[in-house]
Specification:
The protein contains ten helices and no strands. By secondary structure, the protein is an all-alpha fold.
């Protein structure tokens, strides 16, 4: 693979880390699995991240087809995705830990379920609309089979990393404390905001070419 491809995959990986913010979600994971045995908690971590990988890869491969079905241009979706990333980023910089990714109805329904790995941990806390839109944008921007394979491998690496974090979630939460987790959440929010602005700027340049010409002038 060319060096630029590796840089794109690294950018995609960093964007997923900033968007999903697995460190910030760990307190939610710990609270939802608090009454589980260590074995059940480990299985929940595995199921959650397996579901995240499947959801993001399927979205990546089928996302463009859905856009074509509704006659939505990639650049319009890129701007909408960028606005969504900014919305999540502002909430993260405000110190919220997943409250903006899950409404009250989803929370009340999911807590009563025995298996919380898929709902709400995998979706909507991790593979939420913003993460899904990000994968669709990258896949549409680089639709070559080799690039899609690289993005899929990146998603798997990301899911494995999140799984390792969740396995050690109780220990990490005790070490960082709520203040440390809030600091990391705000940093991830700042990175995510920058990525969202990049998405919006790229989309607007194509949708409104006059803006790019004016910028050059």
């Amino acid at each position: 693979m060319q060096h630029i491809d590796l840089a794109i995959f690294l950018q995609f990986f960093v964007g997923l880390v900033a968007l999903v913010n697995p460190v910030g979600i760990m307190p939610v994971f710990v609270s939802l699995t608090n009454n589980m045995s260590p074995q059940d908690r480990a299985r929940t971590a595995y199921v959650a991240n397996l579901a995240v990988a499947i959801i993001l890869i399927v979205s990546m491969l089928a996302g463009q087809m859905l856009l074509d079905m509704f006659s939505i241009s990639l650049d319009s979706f890129r701007v909408a995705g960028g606005l969504l990333l900014l919305s999540v980023a502002f909430s993260m910089m405000g110190g919220k830990l997943g409250d903006d990714k899950q409404n009250k109805q989803e929370q009340s329904e999911s807590i009563s379920r025995e298996q919380v790995g898929v709902v709400p941990i995998a979706m909507p806390l991790m593979a939420g609309p913003a993460a899904i839109s990000s994968t669709i944008v990258y896949a549409g921007r680089y639709p070559e089979p080799l690039s899609l394979l690289g993005f899929s491998i990146t998603v798997v690496i990301f899911a494995v990393g999140c799984w390792l974090l969740f396995r050690s979630a109780p220990l990490i939460v005790r070490m960082l404390g709520q203040t440390g987790i809030n600091v990391i959440t705000r940093i991830m929010g700042l990175i995510l905001a920058a990525l969202g602005i990049e998405f919006i700027a790229t989309g607007l340049k194509v949708l409104f070419p006059g803006l790019a010409a004016a910028g050059v002038a």
